[in-house]
Amino acid sequence: DGYNNPQVSAENLIGLSRARRPNNAIFVNFDDEVPTKPLDAAAQAWKKVCTNPVDRKVEEELRKLFEVRPVWSRNAVKANISVHPDKLKLLLPCLAYYMITGPWRSLWVRFGYDPRKHPEAKIYQVLDFRIRCGMKYGYTPNDMPVKAKRSTYNYSLPITVKKPVSHTVSVHDLKQGLGTPGASGAKKPASSRYKLKESVYVFREGALPPYRQMFYQLCDLNVESLQKIIHRNDGTESECTERDGWCLPKTSDDLRDSMSLMIKQIIRSTRPALFSSTTSSEDGKEQLAYESGEDEDDEEEEEEDFKPSDGSENEMETEILDYV
């Protein structure tokens, strides 16, 4: 009795520091029913910003993508269509629902399509792949050509109260155009201005992933030996499980082992000194430190080719927070 809530301020506020974003995405767990249509609010939100032929063309292109392939990651969409990220957040909930658990977690699935009922949908399952590092693999995190997006010591969730304020894109901004403040005079063509590189969702032999953690769909692992692992049980799939989907048990582990070996071979070929035998552990440490310093400039040059997206290293976490 007599207790009054303290006045809300940045000093004593615990919890969300921003209003929920009305992007109206439908989130689906592995055991939930599949929605057949979007929320009315999602369609209305997109209608407000879809005011020019470019927007209508983007919508048509995205519809065609989902006709050809019913399950997409957001990065895969962004690598195939040039669309402003804030407009894509409004458009995706109009055409697909978002799975948050199971073998298709972190992916957008076309309304009405239930991958749990189609064995052929195993090629759309997600693989959470992380580049392994440590002395037992022959190189330390500092020696890796692929750098982390951000330091773990300098990381905060997007809901953190004192997070630096970023530029807010309003409905008016989206209606007026797709440009961003401070854009340089030499603009990219509209057809590719916002497109990401293919490497953000496709794994190829002989190429390093752009980030240390990647979410690949199995159909985007463009290596014959990996596809053989995925299709080992073709025609004999009997049950879709939350852990392995339509694949054989431990398929994800086998894929990670094979991919890690490929990456180790790439690093070995580019930096053989990291894997050379040493007479003592101290000599090995000195050699690793020397190699890391010697190739620092090369690492910076490689990093320029990749433009990490905003948000955490965990793309699924970042994408869900975009909508809540």
Automatic annotation (TrEMBL):
Alphabetized Pfam families for the sequence: Tau95
Boundaries of every Transcription factor IIIC subunit 5 HTH domain copy: 11-130
GO molecular function terms noted in the UniProt entry: RNA polymerase III type 1 promoter sequence-specific DNA binding; RNA polymerase III type 2 promoter sequence-specific DNA binding
Cellular compartments per GO CC: transcription factor TFIIIC complex
A GO BP annotation: transcription initiation at RNA polymerase III promoter
Biased amino acid composition, Acidic residues: 292-305, 312-324
Region (Disordered): 273-324
Top-level taxon: Eukaryota
Designated name of the protein: General transcription factor IIIC subunit 5
Lineage, top ranks: Eukaryota, Metazoa, Chordata, Craniata, Vertebrata
